[in-house]
Design goal:
single chain, alpha/beta, Alpha/beta knot, 7-stranded parallel β-sheet, about 40% helix, about 15% strand
Length: about 160
């Protein structure tokens, strides 16, 4: 394996499961570009990649991130297993706080749909499920905020961009 391929395999990946709000998806991909994190989009997305809100949120950073598009969750799983990558799902139903989880280089951190989270099959496929603790009387953080928080902790633990 070449040095570039080794570095790419060690990079974290942020996977967006069927994203349905273009502004949030663009924001998360912009964060990936700035932090040196790869991205994966599991289709179907709730908007075309030509959507002006998506492009505006991602700005000119979208060309600076390695984005793998998968036509389905099954196709994503084939890719992930072939690459030997661990799937870490951010979910409000997990018990383990993200700050207590031990991240590894090459982990795939996945966020669910803004409107519905991730379905049972994604929960079942995940190697780990983590939560960002919030006040009990509130439901959840914005998905882009949650992704940035978890990526920050994962990058801190794994040594950041390589």
């Amino acid at each position: 394996m070449s040095t570039d391929a080794q570095l790419t395999a060690q990079r974290l990946t942020l996977a967006l499961y069927q994203p349905d709000i273009p502004q949030n998806a663009g924001t998360m991909l912009r964060a990936c570009a700035c932090l040196g994190v790869n991205a994966a989009i599991i289709e179907p997305a709730g908007f075309p990649v030509s959507d002006r809100h998506f492009r505006r949120s991602g700005m000119d950073y979208l060309d600076q991130v390695d984005i793998a598009r998968h036509v389905s969750f099954a196709a994503f799983e084939d890719w992930r297993h072939a690459a030997g990558r661990r799937l870490v799902l951010l979910t409000t139903t997990a018990a383990e706080p993200y700050t207590q989880f031990v991240f590894h280089p090459g982990d795939v951190l996945m966020v669910g749909r803004e409107s519905a989270g991730a379905p049972a099959q994604v929960h079942a496929a995940a190697d780990a499920r983590i939560v960002i603790p919030i006040r009990a009387d509130l439901r959840s953080l914005n998905v882009a905020v949650a992704a940035a928080m978890a990526l920050g902790e994962a990058l801190r633990q794994t040594g950041g961009y390589r």
